[in-house]
Amino acid sequence: MQNKEDRQKLLAQQTLSKINEVENHGTRRYPHRLNFYDKPPLGDITIEDFETCALDRLRILAEIESSFVRNRSWDELKNITITQSDKFLQLNSNSAWTLDLESQRRKDHVGHFVLRLAFCRSEDLRRRFVKAETALFRVRFDSDDGEENLEFLKSRDFGWEEVTADEVEEHFKELQTAAASANREPNPKERYCKVRWTRVPDLIEKRRVFLKGGMAYVPSREQSSIVFQEFQNSLMKSLEMTAKALPFLDEDTRIVPILNNLSQGFLAGVSSEWSTATAGSGNEITADMIDDMARKHFPACMRNLHECLRRDKHLKHFGRLQYGLFLKVLGLSIDEAISFWRRSFSNIQDDKFNKEYRYNIRHSFGLEGKRANYPAKSCQQILTSDQPGTGDSHGCPYRHFSPDNLQTALLSMYSSQGLTSADLPEIMHTVKAGHYHVACTRVFEITHARQGVAKGEGVGSGESVTHPNQYAARSRELERERDGDNGKKEDDGDVVMMG
Ligand code: SF4
């Protein structure tokens, strides 16, 4: 009885403290949605969480980078970032108090710090990481509730000095002139703060603030600029400090491979993984369908492997691996896979095929050896591991072909789907800048324009290609949608005619 009462008391206390926590944001570990990440997260974390939090954040940062490369407008970048965040890293405002805000914010916090470890290692990585993180912070700031932003700003010392009403009156004319040159409606009730002019170079450059005695008079509507600058500077400093401390981590055999994987993905311009959960069920396609599918739905890497296989009636080890796993995830069953490879290697006798190749195909389906069900290779893996040598046909054409060969290959692969030589300069420009997956995404858009894919739409909601199976799956989906629509239109037509 005593125990029951004690338990009830404990439960009541826990509920009360939870309510207090919700009502009094100040006592929570993460009182605000926005975070300057001054302190690292404390407490235990599993290796799995360590990696998942970072990968999910990386998907968003990679999409922000792609948006920069593609010259997307701020609104487009913002929309894509919000869509990606809803999928991988939800972060709600305090008003959504029924949700588990603490765990959302912890995931955000952990992910940020893991990526700091991965991206502090070189000047280039640091610069790109700071740029993408600052854009993410800005998207959140812009899309947050005004009241919550204000609370967040009050919680930190940004080192600005409030301008008194007397001072505003004294410089009223100059302040109005600055407002007019920034296309701001004059507002007599506008509040101002003063900071050293060096802290707001962007506002000075655009003549959006009044300057006096080395101080910039920043109206409340422009204060976010100081906040973003501060975020950027403090993150850059922290990354430089982390880089100095990093050698101590080098001996940790659990963490270092994860960090290497993360930074390699970002260097290649793509986040690590596309979930193959939505891929084929294993019985969807047959060996006979592959020629037609390659022509209509495959990205350049797989299209090239398919054409080499047809031409040489053979593929070397890494080529078979890359293409075989792709076809498996696309939906080719083990029996169909054996039939496909057997027929494709038409110069080889049955005996040799059974001895040397059948086992490997069954192995990749998890039916031999370790019995692991191997996933298909992502763009990141194709771009960064097992570099192809002479005579190899695996890899990513955007990265591994010479510029001339790439242009010839693209025209021969995709001109029947609408790609013309006029499209090549834009694609080659992206390739030269090292953004191979962005070039691949642009080719996807051009070759699917007839199915209604617009420039900038990527493989859906502005997403870039990160996995060959994602490319093929979206292409097939678009075809099904179009066929469905045509079927519907024909049905509608029948109804009209019958009427
Ligand atoms: Fe294949 Fe990815 Fe390269 Fe496109 S970017 S060709 S999908 S590896």
TrEMBL record:
<keyword id="KW-0004">4Fe-4S</keyword>
<feature type="region of interest" description="Disordered">
    <location>
        <begin position="455"/>
        <end position="499"/>
    </location>
</feature>
<keyword id="KW-0479">Metal-binding</keyword>
<protein>
    <recommendedName>
        <fullName>DNA primase large subunit</fullName>
    </recommendedName>
</protein>
<feature type="domain" description="DNA primase large subunit C-terminal">
    <location>
        <begin position="292"/>
        <end position="471"/>
    </location>
</feature>
<dbReference type="Pfam" id="PF04104">
    <property type="entry name" value="DNA_primase_lrg"/>
</dbReference>
<comment type="function">
    <text>DNA primase is the polymerase that synthesizes small RNA primers for the Okazaki fragments made during discontinuous DNA replication.</text>
</comment>
<keyword id="KW-0235">DNA replication</keyword>
<dbReference type="Pfam" id="PF26466">
    <property type="entry name" value="DNA_primase_lrg_N"/>
</dbReference>
<feature type="compositionally biased region" description="Basic and acidic residues">
    <location>
        <begin position="474"/>
        <end position="491"/>
    </location>
</feature>
<dbReference type="InterPro" id="IPR007238">
    <property type="entry name" value="DNA_primase_lsu_euk/arc"/>
</dbReference>
<dbReference type="InterPro" id="IPR016558">
    <property type="entry name" value="DNA_primase_lsu_euk"/>
</dbReference>
<dbReference type="InterPro" id="IPR058560">
    <property type="entry name" value="DNA_primase_C"/>
</dbReference>
<keyword id="KW-0411">Iron-sulfur</keyword>
<keyword id="KW-0639">Primosome</keyword>
<comment type="similarity">
    <text>Belongs to the eukaryotic-type primase large subunit family.</text>
</comment>
<keyword id="KW-0408">Iron</keyword>
<keyword id="KW-0238">DNA-binding</keyword>
